[in-house]
Amino acid sequence: MTTRRRSRPGQYGAHVALLPMALTTLVGYLGAMLWTLRVSFTSSRTFALDDYVGLAQYARLFANERWLLSLENLAVYGVIFVAGSLLLGLVLAVLIDRQVRAEAALRTAFLYPYAMSFVATGVVWQWLLNPSLGLQEVGRRLGFAGFQFDWIVDPDKVIYTIAIATIWQASGLVMVILLAGLRGVDPEIWKAARLDGIPAWRVYSSIVLPMLGHSFATAAILLLAATVKLYDAVVAMTQGGPGTASEVPAKFIMDHLFGRANIALASAGAIVMLVTVMALLAPVVYLRRHASGVSAR
Amino acid sequence: MLLQLAHHALGMLSARLTTIAVGLLVSVLAHAAPPRAEVIHWWTSGGESAAVRRLADAYKSAGGVWLDTAVAGSEQARAVAISRVVGGNPPTAALFNTSKQFHDLVEQGSLATVDAVAIKEGWDKLLPEPILAAIRIKGHYYAAPVSIHMPTWIWYSKAAFRKAGLTAEPATIDELFQDLDRLKAAGLIPLAHGGQPWQENILFRAMLANVGGRDLYLRILRERDPRALQSAEFRRVLLTFKRLHSYVDAAAPGRNWNDATALLITGKAGIQIMGDWVKAEFALARQLPERDYGCIAGLGSHVPYIVQGDAFVFPKSADAQTAAAQQLLASVITAPRTQVAFSAQKGSVPIRPDVDQSALDSCARKGIEILKDKSRVVGNDENYLTPDQNGALSDILTAYWNSNTSVEAVQKLIAVALTQ
Q1: Is residue B261 within 8 Å of B272, Cβ to Cβ?
Q2: What confidence score (pLDDT) does residue B387 get?
Q3: Which of B201, B214, B186 is nearest to B270 (CA)?
Q4: Contact B399 A243 (CB under 8 A)
Q5: Lowest mean pLDDT among A219-233, A283-297, B84-98
Q6: What pLDDT is recorded for position A8?
Q7: Whole-angstrom Cα distance, residue B130 to residue B150?
Q8: Which of A132, A135, B90, B135 could form a Cys-Cys staple with B251, CB 3.0–4.6 A?
Q9: Which of B200, B402, B404 to mutate to test the interface with A (most CBs of A within 10 A)?
Q10: Which residue numbers of A have CB closer than 8 Å to B's CBs?
């Protein structure tokens, strides 16, 4: 420890170089956060005002059916989306890891959805899922008269269609992260396993995958962040409908921020989301730090 | 010294360019620049941008320079305008609906008045009352109206009506439902609907106007009267609204309004309840009112005519030239000739009755005729409700339309949302 504390040349240079970024973080992120917190205690409409009303906006928020439904939707969506993307990404990564032909082409194909704006691909999904234009109609024209796939217009199932479309988009990214992790596994392990005659699935499940903890944590954090800011997929595919069935918190906040000229209520919603994210991410970050501390020793 | 070097290096061409540049600079300094107006609006579709070009042309022929800043989406456009005002870099003019949308800006003292134009043209006598109420605050005029839309016209496809054996247009609400039943029996989509909250809101307002009448309409939306909100009449309005749901096809959720209009154009659906902007869609498909489609402003002569307007506001500027450009803009866009040219493209009704109506279609002329009867004119929901109340109402209505909530529960929710 004492050797580390000795100042080295360039140490201050690094700090100076990081200063602009630190200032951006302090003013841009932390400052905006505090400003949002302040506004959420006021009765501001179009402009920020100083008339504090305590927790009134929060009380209104949690009496609002659309907000509560948004939270519920986000929870359901988050579980399906994170689990689905991790699983599909893992399957893709493992399959590609088995030295398939045309690996580069497949990798590109699977990662491509992530490179495209969801505003565009969401519209394609909307058409695919539309019962009178898309898959259902195609199925019926092929002769399956009773074929039914109308989830996007069904208030009880619409959130699953959003999950399907966004899993399609995000699983490529998960695949790339996990594939990088798989490629980092020492080939000697595979050779040893082959000598011992252990089947491949067993090597993956008992040896290789447990070594990918960091890759999984990275993918999970990215997916969680994507869950919380879910907005473009909903706007492009359902606009929150049918009715309010696929509303999500980010859309609630955006609607109130601009269209409904109620920045105080929107800010309260944003703060609730922030607290939720921190509560969700804290264990992950803690585990990661804990894990790296163990491995460093 | 530097200039000389440059001349030598680049030769005659450079010298010439410099002369031109200096000449231009001198001429700019010597003569006052023409009034320049940067205008933020959200009119980006085919018919809309043709309409806004009429405004720009009129401004140019009045000696002004029109700088077009079109932002797709009305909410986005207003958000851009507001953030530029807040950020100290306001546009010369920005489009808003004639509603409370810009009243916060007025309260903040961010908007210039157009009193001179308003008094010279006699807006008090010319404009419908809901438009005046939205733009005139404490005796000052803060916006120049450009169009009057009516959001709850009932449109019907003549081809679909023929297929269902219908010959006359519905004259009462009961006849409307009979016609919907006949259309359904003929295997058509009775009601072409786009399942988006604002479109469901339009169906609600149509029922509030047609079933509830003027008195209930104003007591609900303007007075937000708790007794009216709990009344049996209002319950009947909500039930009629919900009854329309049984005439909508399964693919309606999420559909855009113009796709719903396309169902009428192709004769697949019978009726659509929507604002008069659908005329642009019919026109694009080369269909004509009375020949291919019909328009009904209201089922009965007692039904109120809802006025939904667009207006330009003029953010305050310390610059005298900008102020002059704003005054010129306000007077040009409200002038009778501009109004006719604009309305014919936009599908709206001119803001003033003293115009040459021959260039307008029969639906617009029906509208102008009804507007003369002051007792039928009412404001749109956004005239009476704050954007926040209106949004809360819209959330409740769209949830009711798409779920099996009881009408009593919905009535309670609306009462809470509007009296909050």
Answers
A1: yes
A2: 87
A3: B186
A4: yes
A5: A283-297
A6: 60
A7: 12
A8: A132
A9: B402
A10: 45-47, 60, 64-66, 126, 130-133, 150, 152-153, 155, 237-245, 255-256, 258-262, 265
Q: Choose, out of B76, B107, B388, B393, the residue to mutate when testing the contact with A (most A CBs < 10 Å).
A: B388
Count the helix, strand and coil residues of chain B and give each as a percent rounded to the nearest 5. Answer: 55, 15, 30
Closest chain B CA to residue A136: B251
Q: Which pLDDT value is given to residue B28?
A: 44
Residue type at position A107: R
Give yes or no for a contact between A259 and B275, defined as CB atoms under 8 angstroms apart. Answer: no
The shortest C-alpha distance from B281 to chain A (Å) reads 21
ipTM: 0.82
Cβ separation B197–A240 shorter than 8 A: yes
**Nearest CA-CA distance, residue B401 and chain A, Å:** 7
pLDDT greater than 70 at residue A192: yes
The reported pLDDT for the residue numbered A46 is 84
In chain B, count H helices and then E strands: 21, 12
Single out the residue of B417, B381, B394 nearest to residue B97, CA to CA.
B381
What number of H helices and E strands is found in chain A?
15, 0
CB B139 within 8 A of CB B342: no
Spatial distance between the Cα atoms of B420 and B17, rounded to a whole number of angstroms: 66
Inter-chain contacts counted by CB atoms under 8 A, chains A and B = 92
* Contact across the interface for A244 and B402, Cβ inside 8 Å: yes
- Distance in angstroms (rounded) separating the CA atoms of residues A89 and A212: 13
Say how far apart CA B103 and CA B417 lie, in whole Å: 21
Tell me which amino acid residue B92 is: T
CA distance B299 to chain A (A): 27
Separation of alpha carbons A289 and B10, rounded Å: 64
Token duo for residue A287: 């585990």
How does residue B80 score in pLDDT terms, banded at 50, 70 and 90?
very high
Give the CA angle between residues A264, A268, A269 to the nearest 5°. 115
The average confidence (pLDDT) of chain A is 88
- Cβ B315 vs Cβ B85: under 8 Å: yes
Alpha helices by DSSP H, listed for B122-172, are: 123-126, 129-135, 158-163
Look up residue B304 and give its two tokens: 């109120």
Instruction: Give the minimum alpha-carbon distance from A135 to chain B in angstroms, rounded to a whole number.
Output: 13
Distances (CA, A) of A100 to A90, A92, A94, A188: 15, 11, 10, 20
My answer on whether omega of the bond before A283 falls inside 30° of 0, hence cis, is no
> What's the sign of the alpha-carbon dihedral B252, B255, B257, B258?
negative
Q: Mind giving me the DSSP string for A65-94?
A: HHHHHHHHHHHHHHHHHHHHHHHHHHHHHH
Residues in B closer than 8 angstroms to A240, CB to CB, are 197
* pLDDT tens digit sequence for B306-334: 999 999 999 999 899 999 999 999 999 99
Residues 6+ apart with CB under 8 A from B85: B94, B105, B110, B315
CA distances from B13 to A249, B2, B22, B184 (A): 61, 16, 14, 76
pLDDT digit string, tens, across residues A2-53: 445 555 656 788 888 889 999 999 999 999 999 999 999 999 988 888 899 9
**What are the CA-CA distances from residue A277 to residues A74, A136, B296 (Å)?**
12, 37, 52
Q: What angle do CA B314, B76, A125 make, to 5 degrees?
A: 160
Distance CA B259, CA B261 (A): 5
